[in-house]
Design brief:
- The structure is a single chain.
- By secondary structure, this protein is an alpha+beta fold.
- Helix content is 38%, strand content 20%.
- The strands form three sheets. Strands 1-5-6-12-11-10-7-9-8 form a nine-stranded mixed sheet, sandwiched between helices. A three-stranded antiparallel sheet has the order 2-4-3, with no helix packed on it. The chain has a two-stranded parallel ribbon with strand order 13-14.
């Protein structure tokens, strides 16, 4: 049998200085979670398929790692923490009557196409605030603080509003397939594709104009007024008003300079219902943070509750820090004490003394001539 010494495609070993840097980064992020009063939770690495089924609105089935247990149940390696934490919250807590604040750290597994060049196993850290319909500004402030704590100086948190798009869709009366095509084209900022699709439909001119503007509708807080001017849909206007309110609260934190708005941001996760956000920085093409509101997800687990959360992809953040030449502390190398059989006792006692004083010590037996 051929011996295999390399990892499968899409996963990698992390060792030496990078491993200690990653642990340091996780410790700093966890300090932010703790400072906001979030309690840690651990969920299993694999769950029943139903937790991540199409009805939940998470990762497509083709991208899941699926297998069977002895009883024939379909199990899935966790691709996304939010459904897992929501399932656990519905099992052990009462979000209908109290606000639940949970934080997590662990790995997710997505069977990405090999052509995408993404890792298939990544470490995520995040928080979920369940049973609260008014905490968007706090979650955005936490996102900013986590990235500052990591050492980043230049980054942007881009905030979208799913309800704005959904409100326009209700007036357009498109079929499901056309809705999905439009969502995809707007997310990709495919201006010409959006134009072709919209103009092939029999929708009012004012609504057509709003859809055509969505891929362009991103920037600083001034963009909120433009979004308001594009529609008279009451729900869409309320969505804009909510973003305006969130922006004013972020000014109290002093973090408004890190935030921009993007009405063309439409997540592939179907469970998002209100604001969604992603954080970007130099050195990685992927977001380092993704989050949003998901008020309908807990219905799937029997306890409906307004909820919001975000997840930090630690591997992407670590890559960005490296490429921006932002150094993280590495674990200090241990003191090495060598010994022979003759002085083993003295070496052990000296090592224990130093360890009790807080020094890391590695004992090494000297090679003796035969």
């Amino acid at each position: 049998m051929q011996r295999i010494f390399h990892t499968p495609e899409g996963v990698r070993d992390i060792y030496n200085g990078e491993c200690s840097q990653k642990h340091h980064l996780q410790t700093e992020i966890r300090k932010v979670f703790d400072s906001y009063g979030y309690e840690e939770i651990e969920t299993p690495s694999f769950e029943y398929f139903e937790v991540f089924s199409r009805e939940v609105g998470t990762i497509p089935s083709k991208d899941l790692y699926k297998f069977f247990d002895r009883e024939g149940n379909t199990l899935v390696l966790r691709p996304d923490f939010t459904p897992s934490v929501s399932r656990a919250c519905a099992t052990y807590f009462n979000p209908e009557h109290q606000v639940i604040t949970l934080s997590y750290t662990g790995n997710t597994f997505i069977n990405n196409s090999s052509y995408q060049g993404r890792l298939k196993e990544t470490t995520q850290m995040g928080v979920e605030r369940i049973g609260d319909d008014s905490a968007e500004a706090e979650l955005l402030a936490m996102t900013v603080e986590c990235l500052l704590k990591a050492g980043l100086k230049e980054f942007q948190v881009s905030v979208g509003q799913v309800d704005y798009f959904k409100s326009l869709l209700q007036d357009a009366n498109l079929d499901i397939e056309e809705e999905e095509n439009l969502r995809s084209l707007i997310s990709q900022k495919n201006y010409f594709g959006v134009e072709d699709l919209v103009r092939s439909q029999n929708i009012p001119e004012s609504l057509e104009k709003a859809f055509l503007e969505l891929p362009h509708l991103f920037g600083s807080s001034e963009i909120l007024q433009k979004a308001r001017s594009l529609t008279d849909n009451i729900c869409a206007i309320k969505a804009v008003e909510r973003l305006e309110e969130i922006y004013e609260i972020l000014k109290i934190y002093g973090y408004e300079k890190y935030v921009s708005f993007d009405f063309g941001m439409l997540s592939k996760f179907q469970y998002y219902t209100g604001i969604i956000f992603q954080a970007y920085t130099y050195g990685t093409g992927e977001p380092v943070v993704k989050g949003g509101r998901y008020n309908n997800l807990l219905k799937h687990f029997g306890k409906p509750a307004a909820s919001i959360g975000f997840g930090i992809t630690v591997d992407n953040l670590l890559m960005a820090l490296s490429r921006q030449k932002i150094s993280l502390p590495e674990k200090k190398a241990p003191v090495i004490l060598t010994y022979t059989e003759a002085n083993r006792r003295e070496a052990i006692l000296e090592a224990q003394k130093l360890r009790n004083e807080g020094t890391a010590v590695a004992l090494r037996r000297e090679k003796e001539d035969c």
